[in-house]
Amino acid sequence: LRSKKQLAQADLTILLIDGSDEVTQEDQDLFALVSERPFLIVVNKTDLTERFDLQALTGGREATVVAISARTGEGMEALTGAIAEKALAVSSKTVHESSVSKCCGR
């Protein structure tokens, strides 16, 4: 319950998935929770045999996915860029909504 409250308040949620394992029901349940707000999927362990299936996780919904290997460091630069891009998009939207609210009394 507390985690759901924190997710609802988060500006950006990062869903970290083990890319060396098949998508589980728990992964799908977590995706359903995080996909209600701005999110980013990070698939770790790309240095191992990849068994991750994006379609199985998202059910075809659009998602930004970054593949990384925490062990080798591969993909970390892409992850940093994706987080910055998502954070900028979220902050721009928040500023726009705040301006509309102040301007139009919403």
Task: Tell me what you see in this structure.
By secondary structure, this protein is of the alpha/beta class. It contains four helices and three strands, in the order αβαβαβα. The protein is 49% helix and 14% strand. A three-stranded parallel β-sheet has the order 1-2-3, with helices on both faces. β2, α3 and β3 form a beta-alpha-beta unit.
Task: Reconstruct the topology from this structure.
Layout: H1 2-9, E1 13-18, H2 25-34, E2 39-44, H3 54-58, E3 65-67, H4 76-104
Parallel strand pairs: 1-2, 2-3
| Total of DSSP H or I helical runs spanning 4+ residues | 4
Quaternary status: single chain
Q: Give the integer mean of the pLDDT values.
A: 86
> In what range is the share of β-strand residues?
5-15%
Class by helix and strand content? alpha/beta
Give the proportion of residues in helices.
Answer: 40-55%
Strand order of the largest sheet: 1-2-3
Order of helices and strands: HEHEHEH
- Rg, please? 16 Å
Assign an overall shape.
Answer: globular
**Uncertain stretches:** 95-104
Largest sheet: 3 strands, parallel
Measured distance between first and last alpha carbons: 30 Å
Number of strands: 3
